[in-house]
Amino acid sequence: MLPSAATRAERRSAWKWIPSLYFAEGIPYVIVMTMSVTMYKKLGISNADIALYTSWLYLPWVIKPFWSPFVDIIRTKRFWIVSMQLLIGAMMGAVALTIPGPDFFRWSLLFFWLMAFSSATHDIAADGFYMLAIDDSNQAWFVGIRSTFYRLAMITGQGLLIMLAGQLEVGLDDLPLAWSLTMGTAAALFLVLMIWHRWALPRPAADRAARQEEGTSIVAGFVETFRTFFAKKGVWVTILFILFYRFSEAQLVKLAQPFMLDPVDVGGLGLTTSQVGFVYGTVGVLSLTLGGLLGGFVAARQGLKFWLWPMVVAINVPNAVYLFLAWAQPSSDLIINTAVAVEQFGYGFGFTAFMLYMIYAAEGEHKTAHFALLTGFMALGMMLPGMISGWIQEMLGYQQFFVWILIATIPGFLVASLVRIDPEFGKAAKG
How many domains does the chain have? Predict the structure, then answer.
């Protein structure tokens, strides 16, 4: 059945804002979670401090479900999108200004935290706006477009911006100035996106603030959401699965880039900033995307239950490539890029099971709100292990740390053995 004329017109209009909106959604997240790690490492912060303090930056995403109802109550989602983009751009500029100054670590962390809070709020508003501004058929049609431009944001943040910093480091021979200019570039980019969205975002009639007199019922619904979530059968197994499925990966992700950047004589690989930007921002992201696409394809054919254990293996066992890299310390870009590609492909494939299980666990009444709660536990599962990972690495050294990373995969296998899944869940409808 062909789409109606109204649907086609809405689709043409949506091209003006959906790609750029989801690009804007991805940029601050990847800067806060990934680019900050590389920046702090190059500016001389210890691995223990990097892992501890950048893991705290997950907190706004952990607590996001608690304030998401109030985004509905206060002003429109369009207002929140534009306002948060302005604030995010300002925080990027503030980080840029603090880097060359004294006590930059403390001040930049404060601005990164405000950026993270703004980004989490932006996520709430953007996803809600998407569902209000276009009809159901166009929502389905643009799902792939959303994901593609979010991945492009990852390539920009993990790859292009870090590679820019690397080039500036060499050209200027001044690390603080190089990273200050890089963050300034990100701020300028984001302010351009804010100006664009202030003009391009539509003004759907459905996008309006909830009436103040509805506040009581919204709060009551909020409480009911929590009550029904914790009344679900097997909820504690679900929470354990969400918290520990990525226990190993949550620690690895905080030390992978410092390992690549550290000199060979202290156990690292001695890569340049630009090399790290390329391996994680291009090779890594592309491999992650391919693994995710394959995971979605096979799960749609035979269901989550059939593929759960292969995906558990895929997200954990390829972590062994870092043990190989730590012991062999190869200088070949091909070997290093191949190792990261293998690990990231496995992560993308294995992460499919994680996302599908969250969808499965959220099924029933209040499934949207329950899914939001599960994403909070997901962020907590990354935050807590990440906080201690730098201290463990400094105590053990890189070689023994990556032995620990393999031992830390055991909880992922244990929690996977506890879950019970309908064999039909995840299978695409036939016919």
Answer: 2
